[in-house]
Amino acid sequence: MSNESYLLILGEQRAIAWVLGEQRMAFPRTARAEETRLAVGDELFVYATRGAFGNPTRDRGRVIGRATVASTVVELDEPVEIAGRRFPRGCDITVESLTPFRTGVELKPLVERLKAFPNPRAWSIYLRRALLHLPASDADLLRELLRPLAGPRRDHLQPYLDRAQAAAG
After folding, report:
1. Domain spanning 5-151, CATH class
2. Staple 104 to which of 53, 57, 64, 72, CB 3.0 to 4.6 Å?
3. Could you tell me if 93 and 44 are in contact, meaning their C-beta atoms sit under 8 angstroms apart?
4. Domain boundaries in the chain?
5. How do residues 82-130 score in pLDDT, each as one tens digit?
6. Apex CA 4: angle with CA 14 and CA 32, to 5°?
7. Can you tell me the distance from the alpha carbon of 89 to that of 24, in angstroms, rounded to the nearest whole number?
8. pTM value?
């Protein structure tokens, strides 16, 4: 069985810092099945929404990194709380690459080419979830565009952590 690829959608800077820093993902309790289908080895393209850093007029929604699922999704003994929300399920991930802060692959110009967005005019509706399954051709394109922008996690992590710390206060 081949591994699947997903867009991992993060809309809050403290959540982004936690995911990148802890190399874990936590999920809200929802009726969506995507989280239960995640398998070890699946590929995650980490996507920061345009509102994630508090200035949606300046920032753009971007793929900022690539990760691999490192454990199955399980019920957590203690739910994770981030930005006032509780996340009772989670898994470990390995962040393979990360772009410098406020850079990455802008998604909006690509939606016409991505099969994951069957209605490009209403593409943002597909981002109102934690995971969006990506067909292989979409994953190939994002991987190709991300490769020259991203480097090792350790080289680019600190600004993401600093920004979240400053926002927390």
Report:
1. alpha beta
2. 64
3. yes
4. 5-151
5. 888 899 999 999 999 999 999 999 999 999 999 999 998 999 888 888 8
6. 60
7. 11
8. 0.93
